[in-house]
User: Fold these one by one.
Assistant:
Number 1:
Amino acid sequence: MKQELIERFICYAKVNTQSDPNSHTCPSTSGQWELARMLVEELKSIGMEDVTIDDNGYVMATLPANTDKNVPVIGFLAHMDTAPEFTGANVNPQIIEQYDGGDIVLNKEQGIILSPNDFPELAHYQGHTLITTDGTTLLGADDKAGIAEIMTAMNYLIQHPEIKHGKVRVAFTPDEEIGRGPHKFDVAKFGAQFAYTVDGGPLGELEYESFNAAEAKITIKGKNVHPGTAKGKMINSIKIAMEFEQQLPADEAPEHTEGYEGFYHLLSFQGSVEETKLHYIIRDFDREQFEARKAKMKEIAASLAQKYGNDRITLEINDQYYNMREKIEPVRHIVDIAHEAMTNLGIEPKVKPIRGGTDGSQLSYMGLPTPNLFAGGENFHGRYEYISADNMVKAAEVIVEIIKLFEQKAS
Ligand SMILES: [Zn+2]
């Protein structure tokens, strides 16, 4: 299985599928079409059925049931794009067999080294086969490892018809990294009762809680007057904006929070005397706290409007996604089964809240409860990204085990 995974992964990694938030098409970039078409051919060649690709680049396929038991239809998803913030062109993966635990020279010419001094987690990988970048690009283990693991698990089940299972659906989706992964996902066509994204980090990760998320845009209008004659007339929008920021609790910011703590994050601040714009994101696991944070922003805006004039301050808040826990809790057994699958394989499940969102955060609210499983990679979105091929094997085995468990528990 390991060689098969390495080959698949490297083949996918070489296609540049970096997504682009400024594009309005779906997929946002043509490289994703290229990978999507490759995956369609591969799904057909391994013997998957109902292989489809729609106008938006979503690839779906079916592994038909081989049992008469009444097993729920489950799905597995991975995304095809890589992060916009680091180049995904000309990815040239390096394979390190039997990693010795020391420094890995990614690029001799440029002196780029992946070192356990900077990344102590490398210690866990002694003896593993590692796949790294050549130091000039990201690797794309997020989430091409997930695609390779799903594909390999499907191939394994097709090659082993003695393993009984219900109907399994798989999907490969575009534009996760720019938050649009589920936007055009056809939940009805997919037709699964639950799904798992295979898009997590290191071995054992199992996630079913994400942030509730909103963004806030504040525009403050000032009044510019020559500073020599400004007394009693000038209104400096920058200073009102500073007042706004200062009324938020200083310690509830990303740089001061962890675990289940929420925050306000000032993403950008652009201003002149005449006009200042603030862009925030608001994050909280707890729905009530999340609503309270939005209310707090409205309160501050209202008090500043009272002080400086109603037409000076506009506040626009948009919800982005919600904590998937609310939708997964009622079908909690899907998390328990993933937990059991890992334990059966000797993997210690690491259940933790995601301080962000996954495609599952949106899909769960579209009627497809979707927790997240580890794909195995480390240091996502940059030149130091790497993945253990041995842990990719474990991820593929977890997928197979989950499918087995659903069948075993059905009647
Ligand atoms: Zn991802």
Number 2:
Amino acid sequence: MKMSEGPLSPSGERPFGIYVHVPFCSVRCGYCDFNTYTADELGEGATRASYADTVIAEIEQAREAAGERRVDTVFFGGGTPTQLPADDLVRILRAIDDQFGLAPGAEVSTEANPDSVDPQSLATLHAGGFNRISFGVQSAVPHVLATLDRTHDPAGVPQAVRWAREAGFEQLSVDLIYGTPGESLDDWRTSLEQAIALEPNHVSAYALIVEDGTAFARKVRRGEVQMPDEDETADKYMLADDLLAAAGLGWYELSNWARDDAAQCRHNVLYWNSDDWWGAGPGAHSHLAGERWWNVKHPAAYAQRLAAGEPPRHDGESIDADTAHVERVMLQTRLRTGHPVTDLAETALAKLPELARRGMVIVRDEHVVLTLDGRLLADAVVRELVP
Ligand SMILES: C[S@@+](CC[C@H](N)C(=O)[O-])C[C@H]1O[C@@H](n2cnc3c(N)ncnc32)[C@H](O)[C@@H]1O
Ligand code: SF4
């Protein structure tokens, strides 16, 4: 193993993950540009009813192409995976287990919107092998949720979490967004406090990004809503870090906090360590054996390929050593464990003393690690470290 790589899986091999994209949502949130479709947008040629069989056909192709690999992590993301019947999600998971085999103790996560689950669906998922759930809570404040076009009533979130616990989910994460126009620091404090009251063992908190081409970006451009300035965003990040740390959730990646090492999202850690994964579903990206590729984007085109027995791959590229190095620096520097100093280029090494003098980084156990000030300016610091 090279110094720059992450830990080995319990089986002693490089970790291997499978991502399953589920491209369906009941309503499109104005800020989101993920590859997802409401019933109206989906058009001809792809249905929710046939989706599980289509993905299973890709999993069968994946086994042929990737060969024998035990699966350490599975992540169902979207879109809204829980828009599909729980039985369909379990069927896809079984196909992964049949084709590849899940490693003992494999992490199996699904994302879920709080208003897309009920006690039965959660019980089916847990009994079928899912052991981690990540709820898209975003905010506890109604006017913020309205600006984000979220459909759920915040009062229903504790109930969804309780149902998940009753179904047996111990690994439970909450996704939050900060920096929505109109959100005050107190609104954000309310969201954090209510998230903490749910006693999750993992929290993700991302600053709202204005994605080109979204309805939200058009509102920003027309001046109908105003994005917060950098200072306000930094204040919100620091408040999150303070309150989460006080509640026993420590940062392990810039935007992710966990109760302990076992509560980290192993699937995301696998991405951040540039390990191998297969992404199944329309538009999904894969990263395997020094290559990356991505599938055709539209669910109808995706279904057509698989119905014809063809790979759904749209395009790809091999990752040369320089590109792999830049990606490792960019991703691992965002981790609390940092990036090995021995993997830095000469130019980056030369910048380390100045970055340390400015209080942006420290060197710990031969790894360059961001300080809190460094985390607030992470993009700029990481740019200094890539050749
Ligand atoms: C794409 S969603 C899929 C899961 C689920 N549908 C949900 O919304 O929670 C995953 C996460 O990405 C976040 N996300 C999507 N667009 C974003 C944006 N423009 N800025 C920040 N976070 C975003 C969502 O809010 C959500 O927490
Ligand atoms: S529910 Fe999630 S995936 Fe769907 S549009 Fe909203 S943020 Fe995007």
